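tool=predict chain=A
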Amino acid sequence: MDRIPSSEITDRRFYLNRRAFMASALAAAGGAVVTGGRAHAQEPAAHGRKLMTVRGPLSGKEPPNPWEHLTTYNNFYEFGTRKSDPARNAPKFRPRQPWTVAIEGECSKRGEITLEDVMKGETLEDRVYRHRCVEGWSMVIPWVGFPLANLIKRCAPTSKAAFVEFTTLHDVGQMPGQRSDVLEWPYVEGLRMDEALHPLTILALGLYGEVLPNQNGAPLRLVVPWKYGFKGIKSIVKIRFMEKQPVSSWQRQWAAAYGFYANVNPTVAHPDWSQATEARLPSFFKNTKTLLFNGYGEEVASLYSSLDLRKNY
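tool=predict ok
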């Protein structure tokens, strides 16, 4: 498959979406946006069911972006490539009931488990994490979830399990973006086992103390805060333990731009632009210095002490 032109996946679309996003941000503050001489109020994002949570010990202290930012400016190509597409298209999505996750590969506890099984015995934590996208924008998000390591241990991986692969639901009827050839579907991502077991890595079921909205990856998604956002696979239906490194969707699409590791690194540029600075939304000015490992270096740098981060981007 031909690679996606950079003008279609990065700065150009990022620029064209800023007006819609700023409209949402202003409306969230109680304002209206004047366009073409007329005032238009942005409908607030619908809120979901509350979750019982505790404060996560690894949570950051930065003020999170508002609910309206987090739920109206999203990357979720299953619902469209523009940042506004998921908020418009995902509300029609009806996650199957019961939601099941297939556990496969190098583990002793293979089989299909329900979302209730995934959550069994878990205490949901509020965790405020920085979120950095490869396009150059960032947010601070108050996720609700639990350590992925807890589920992995319950699956009893074998000694051959060096990697974990995740797969998103493939449902062309409900996910209109999957009708396009922008990527090969279903979406696939992966982690090295020590990354998956790290306490910062969580399975998220909500944000802001509420059930995860569809456009943010309902009902179950991955959050790895020191990596670029495309590693955070959404609507997970399969977890497979593997001996060899899996090939992720964006790696397959354009390996020179989207490496398997995807660690946030200001010294490794995307082929079409620098990653040295970022725009902390709602600002669209890239005047914030990008931090190595997205600022989580103290916690995760030891995972890569023997790895060349420029070759293994």
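The domain at 47-304 is CATH 3.90.420.10 (Sulfite Oxidase; Chain A, domain 2). The chain has one domain: 47-304.
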